[in-house]
Specification:
It comes from Saccharopolyspora erythraea (Streptomyces erythraeus). InterPro entries: Glyco_trans_2-like (IPR001173), Glycosyltransferase_2 (IPR050256), Nucleotide-diphossugar_trans (IPR029044). This is Glycosyltransferase 2-like domain-containing protein. With 819 residues, the protein is of the alpha/beta class. A hairpin with a 2-residue loop joins strand 4 and strand 5. Helix 5 packs parallel to helix 8 and helix 12 crosses helix 14. The N terminus and C terminus are likely disordered.
Length: 819
């Protein structure tokens, strides 16, 4: 798999204004229904078992409270991060209630993440259903157990690494810290740093062209913080116990797996190893299961029965090493078998497995042979005797045994779909989601395989309820290429569903130009394509071929604007709009869109792609990546497309416009350099400069032209400029709309010269000019290009000087939205 950046469409449904919540709930009716059902089930569980369920492991967690001794079997993350703080303010019933609320939040977060990446709403809701409705999930949430917190931390890793697109070193470092905390909650998370680091290294560089150095820094930040937190806890363990470790007697876990298959007669064992090697012959299946051997020598009575001064921990480790060395296939076969058990259609139990009924609702309160201990802790943290409501408990048991769980075959299918997407099946290679599938798929496979290496328990399959549906939903979307662009889910409120409409069909359907309503503000009517106050229009557009743009708005502008309104309704843009004019750039555009962040300099960012009569799949790529897409039905040139974008951004509330190219020649990570001076009001127009920064493989003639025209513009305008044609620029929204724009190809110099001549504050920033990621340049012959460029520079300067002498600097104020 090649390195690709992660796509992060901006679907701000969570920021919906209060008065639009009813329509938002209608659009998201399925997940709303599932959340209500999940909440109802959790209320039943809360009432059925008082104060909470206490499993055997619960007693260890409760024993650790107050002094947090790290020498037990498990690390103490659950006690420190969740259980202890909750018991400071409440009792065991309160802990269970909070855990149920966190379970609901877990389902909502799965849906929100998938919705953000354009997964269709019904698929996203079904992916959240397992964690919301699965009875085994409900049961573990009501237990005083660490599993729910472990699930939350794993999903948090996915969110941190993907929510704002491809992560840099800071998000990667945060994810490393969260991963380390997951290890301190459940030690099985120790191996998860591998898929997370691989994701950051291979699939989460800020841009593929950033090179390995950037990706190595991010992966190193993740691994470094992870290792630092783990080492810190190991030192804490050392200070208490004198041993540098994460838990006590973890070698018994490996011993349990080895003892279940050890061929004691064939192995050359020492007397001590003979003692801990099972006597039962393994051929007749009389040998106990892994769980028995893990815990057998942890029982004091069994330890006391051993010879005096017998080091059973050392003997267990020694035997395990010999079995691993001489019977690797037996070990691997056992691990593979236990891994596949989790994907069985129904909940089954094999001989030697952890009893299944431990994770099932019972009609009476389960005591596990520790009635006195259960009662003591229940009364200590709540003055309540443990009890079960027979009717409610009976209902929950019937629900669970009657199919109220996620079939393993469904989870296995989700894992398979995630893997297929990673391999590039269907449309996954071009979807922008292929790389993203790596993270949940890799985390799920790793955590389930690590758990299977220890022993099989249906409890250990619970992380799959979160990660596997997430991987499957992303995989389906990547393979099919069908995303939910959901303009109704954006800030502008409800709008038509466009998932089944092509950009071309939408443009062709724009046959009429509506009159502005009487309630339209005067300034907005002035900028509207339908305004009677607009300059005379020129219907120069034809059905095919490139046409010359007329005065704004011409016929093509009106068709494009009406199609945009048909698709997005009255949607209002974020304060910052990244504007891209694209013509036949389907190969490069996806990578550019994937790298655009959803926020910068404290402001939300929207992406607007103006498709300039493209004949390939440019518009489809833009829509699939969640960009707001305006389609001009015929090709008129980049200048006309940008002019249309400038007006559209102003009409719909943007405050700042940033332009970049669709060919991937600019580094979007440098966006703050353009935006911050505008936000600080220290400039009106900020442009990059390859001369102040760098340029990859510049041609000699182009480099000479850059120097010449920079000198010329500087001389004419009286302000030093080093690069007149850098396309990565930021500006206040009124700036480009105050300059006459007529050029279809040389718009960069036309706009810059016009802005300088009109007296706006212009700032240059050092930036990188990169090689194209795909496609070919459309600039043509260097000499002809230079001649035409010269005409534009001189002509624009003369024209704007005359215009500026008779008009104020700012001829229009932008239409802004309340945010």
């Amino acid at each position: 798999m090649t390195a690709t950046s992660v796509s992060a469409p901006r679907a701000h449904w969570s920021a919906t204004p209060r008065h639009q919540w009813p329509s938002a709930l209608r659009r998201h009716w399925l997940i709303t229904s599932l959340l209500v059902a999940g909440a109802a089930l959790r209320v039943v569980v809360q009432l059925a078992y008082q104060p909470a369920l206490l499993y055997i492991d619960s007693f260890r967690y409760l024993d650790d409270l107050g002094f947090f001794f790290p020498g037990g079997i498990n690390p103490i993350g659950y006690e420190v991060l969740l259980l202890g703080p909750l018991l400071v303010v409440g009792n065991l019933a309160f802990v269970a209630a909070v855990q149920h609320l966190l379970g609901l939040a877990l389902g909502a977060a799965v849906y929100a993440l998938l919705h953000r990446f354009g997964v269709r709403r019904w698929i996203a809701a079904l992916a959240a259903a397992p964690v919301l409705l699965d009875a085994y999930q409900l049961q573990i949430e009501h237990n005083i157990m660490s599993d729910l917190l472990f699930q939350l931390l794993l999903l948090a890793v996915v969110v941190v690494l993907t929510w704002r697109g491809t992560p840099g070193p800071v998000p990667a470092a945060v994810a490393g810290g969260v991963l380390a905390l997951s290890v301190l909650v459940r030690i099985v998370g120790l191996t998860l740093v591998v898929p997370a680091a691989v994701f950051v290294l291979l699939a989460a560089g800020l841009r593929p062209r950033d090179g390995w150095k950037r990706r190595l820094v991010s992966a190193g930040a993740l691994a470094g913080v992870f290792a630092g937190v783990i080492l810190g806890y190991a030192l804490y363990h050392l200070s208490w116990t004198g041993v540098l470790a994460l838990g006590g007697h973890t070698g018994s876990v490996v011993y349990g797996r080895a003892a279940a298959v050890a061929d004691c007669e064939a192995l050359d064992l020492t007397p001590d190893e003979q003692v801990v090697c099972p006597d039962e012959p393994r051929e007749v299946r009389e040998r106990n299961g892994i769980d028995y051997y893990i815990h057998f020598y942890n029982i004091p009575a069994n330890v006391q029965a051993l010879p005096e001064d017998f080091d059973y921990v050392a003997a267990q480790g020694s035997l395990a090493r010999k079995v691993l060395l001489h019977q690797p296939m037996d070990i691997a076969g056992g691990v593979a078998t236990d891994f596949l058990k989790g994907f069985a259609p129904t909940r089954t139990q094999s001989p030697g497995d952890v009893p299944l009924d431990r994770w099932q609702f019972q009609t009476t309160y389960p005591m596990y042979g520790a009635e006195w201990y259960v009662a003591e802790w229940a009364e200590h943290h709540g003055d309540v005797k443990p009890s079960a409501d027979p009717e409610l408990a009976g209902f929950l048991r019937a629900y669970q045994l009657g199919g109220g769980y996620t079939p393993g075959i469904v989870l296995g299918s989700a894992l398979a779909v995630g893997v297929l997407a990673l391999l590039g099946a269907g449309r996954a290679r071009r979807s922008g989601l292929r790389a993203l599938c790596l993270l949940p798929t890799g985390l799920a496979a790793t955590v389930l395989l690590t758990a299977a290496a220890m022993e099989f328990s249906w409890r250990y399959q619970l992380p799959g309820l979160v990660l596997l549906p997430l991987a499957g939903a992303l995989g389906i979307t990547a393979i099919t290429g069908r995303r939910d662009t959901d303009p109704a889910g954006t800030r502008g409120g409800p709008g038509p569903d466009t998932t089944s409409r092509t950009p071309e069909a939408t443009a062709d359907a724009a046959c009429r130009v509506p009159e502005p309503s009487a309630t339209t503000p005067a300034k907005e009517r002035e900028m509207s394509p339908t305004s009677t106050n607009s300059p005379a229009t020129s219907d120069t557009g034809t059905a095919t071929g490139r046409t010359e743009p007329g005065e704004f708005p011409d016929r093509v502008d009106r068709l494009a604007l009406e199609a945009f309104a048909d698709r997005y309704g009255d949607h209002r843009f974020a304060p910052v709009v990244v504007l891209i004019a694209a013509y036949n750039e389907e190969e490069a555009l996806g990578g550019v869109l994937e790298a655009i962040p959803s926020a910068s300099c404290g402001l939300e960012v929207d992406t607007l792609v103006v498709v300039d009569g493209a004949t390939d799949g440019t518009a489809e790529v833009a829509l699939r990546h969640g960009a707001h897409t305006c389609v001009a039905p015929v090709n008129r040139g980049q200048g006309a497309a940008l002019r249309l974008g400038y007006r559209l951004a102003a009409q719909r509330g943007a405050r700042y416009i940033v332009t970049t190219d669709a060919d991937g020649q600019y580094d979007i990570t440098e966006l703050p350099k353009l935006l911050q001076p505008l936000v600080d009001d220290s400039a009106d127009f900020v442009t990059g400069s390859r001369r102040l920064g760098s340029s990859e493989r510049p041609q000699l003639m182009r480099r000479a032209g850059t120097y010449f025209f920079a000198w010329m513009v500087s001389a004419m305008t009286g302000q030093r400029i080093t690069d007149t044609s850098f396309g990565f620029r930021g500006m206040k929204v009124e700036v480009p709309n105050s300059v006459t724009l007529r050029q279809r190809q040389y718009q960069s110099s036309e706009l810059l010269v016009g802005v300088l001549t009109r007296g706006y504050r212009v700032l240059e920033q050092p930036m990188a000019m990169l090689a194209r990621t795909a496609g070919e340049s459309k600039k043509g012959n260097n000499f002809l290009y230079g001649y035409r460029y010269l005409k534009v520079v001189v002509g624009t300067w003369l024209r704007e000087r005359r215009t500026a002498a008779s008009a104020p600097v700012r001829v229009e104020e932008p239409v802004t939205a309340d945010r």
